Amino acid sequence: MKKYSLWIIFVYSHLLAPLHSQTFQSRIRLTAFGTAFQPRNPIELLSSSSKIQSLFRCAMQCNQNRQCRTFDYDYLSLICRLFEGELSTGSILYNDTLSSRIGAIFYDATIQSYSSYGQPCQQCGMGVNRYLQCINNTCQCPPNTFWDGQICLNQLYNGSNCNYSLPSCRQDLNLYCSNQTSKCTVLEIGVISTVAMTSVQSSSLMTTYTASSQSQTSTHTATSQSQTSTHTATSQSKTSITTVTSSPVTSIFWAFDNNVNDLYNVYNGVPTSVTYYSPGINGYGTAAQFSYSISSINIPSPYINLQNRSYTFDCWVNPGTTIYSNDYLIFFVCPVQQNDKCMQVLIRYGKPMLTIWYGDCLSSNNITVSVWTHLAFVFDYHASQATLYVNGVVDTVCTSYPSFQGTPNIASWIGCASAVSMYYAGLIDQLSLVTRVKTGLEILDAATLVLYYSFDNNVSADSGPNLINGTGINVAFASGRINQAVMLNTTPAYVTASNLVLFSLLNQPYSFSFWINAYSTINATLVHAWKSTLNNNSCLPILGFTSLGSIVAQKRNSTTIVSIGGPVISPHTWVHVAHTYSPSDGIRLFINGTLVASSYWPKSIASNASTVNIAIGHCINVTLCSCSSGVIIPGQYNGLIDEFRFYSRRLNTSDILALANP
């Protein structure tokens, strides 16, 4: 399909003294004639207008409507249709008899207008910025889209893979992202059931009601903090309607990407002597850098309400060298210095700790100086239990733990509490606070799922917690193992992810998991890695095929490439591939959930590397393809790839079996 590009610039002028002019622009891609757009859901049709005299006027209508991302125009009927879905979210209909063509507005992180996200409305008024709009006095994403940390993306439909830390599902269709399945799911407002019974029990109130005859009816209404229930019972049947009315969950996320704003632009911070260190844990952003007793972040308003509620704090820390002789404070709120009314999330002399004065939940294990570590502090209000996690693994459990009783009437602090002489030195990144109990799987993924590309009609969107969006070159989409897959069927065609921090750490365990459906299995690269500081020993095809079609996994130390060979892979068949490494058991290769090869690989004696980049499906260019490649023959992979995951931990056999049997 041929594509064309044009720039459309609309100029609004006002004859004032002096002359004032406003401009904003968008780049529009045009498909060939004989194409029409079919949205994922008919609800995405914004308008259908007749008697539109030209393609340019149709494009103008789309450009002036912030919700419009795609349009098609029929030259014979003069009908212009506007859609809110981006081109990649729907389908292109091809028919030589069609007299229409499609226009798609270009969206990516390089668009300067997105730098105004969260800024005052002067930055996104009409005629200034068509990508953002003024909502609650700040520049926000248009309706039915969400902010992924870089751009506004279309919200997703029922069954789509989603990121539970973002409002990524269509809320107007009553969808939410399930933290159990990471898929958009219909939110059930009520549950209605009918069962045969002679008595009705309400376990929450420990009370039993018995109806003695068909004509007798017992009705009970119970109101508590979280639930209202109505029960009607006879000796033959019961109809129960339950409506959950729990308190709304507060979600806060400070990414620290050159500012201290909340991702949702509600709990924005005020920094003092805070600098920004690049790269942050996700490679593309920055981390907040604190100097002990000097730096602080104040969260002045609105006040954060943690009174008698469950909550989860999690973040990445890279602490300074004095951690073993000081309290390193992460978060602090203290309306009054009394029992149960002062909260500290901190590292005490190297050990993670959650304190509700004077209840301490303290780890017995030290974390490492100047190394990125993921910490999570979880309090379950209903169980009166606090749990500390280190790098996604349960470290300490404290039972009979007190709930926070402080009234939400005071500012919170990050990295500093001068009232109790506690401070922080080093780096903090991606600090999250939600007023619910995160599951162990959520925390494990936050700590170790570096990136996850589902390839569901979007090559760049990371469905994992780090939002490390990829870049696709000459890619297309086709029916996948799960929903859609990326198709690589030309040369060059590949997907890249850049500046992976955890992949560069010395002796860091890692795992790859993905599906392939190869058109050919001869001389091809599946995963190629290279350091940002490039030399012949700093790049390697990690997974690929030999000249005989066997699949191979590899790893390098400073002098040696260790290769392990698997079977010949049959073309045109979906195959699950997993490759793991850890210093304790070396490298392993799994095909369809079964271990097919392994080899011990000694720990490296080299220092930590610069950040590492990966390419999926190709070795990219002559320089990278010329690296020492072991037994893999570098080249273009032709076929489909789906559900690509990269972890900073060694997946165990049960993990891999689950991924190989979705």
Automatic annotation (TrEMBL):
Coiled-coil segments on the chain, per record: none
Residue intervals of the Apple domain: 32-111
Protein name from the UniProt record: Apple domain-containing protein
InterPro entries the UniProt entry points to: ConA-like_dom_sf, Pan_app
Signal keyword on record: yes
Region (Disordered) location: 216-237
Keywords carried by this UniProt record: Signal
Signal peptide: 1-21
Pfam families for the chain: Laminin_G_3, PAN_1
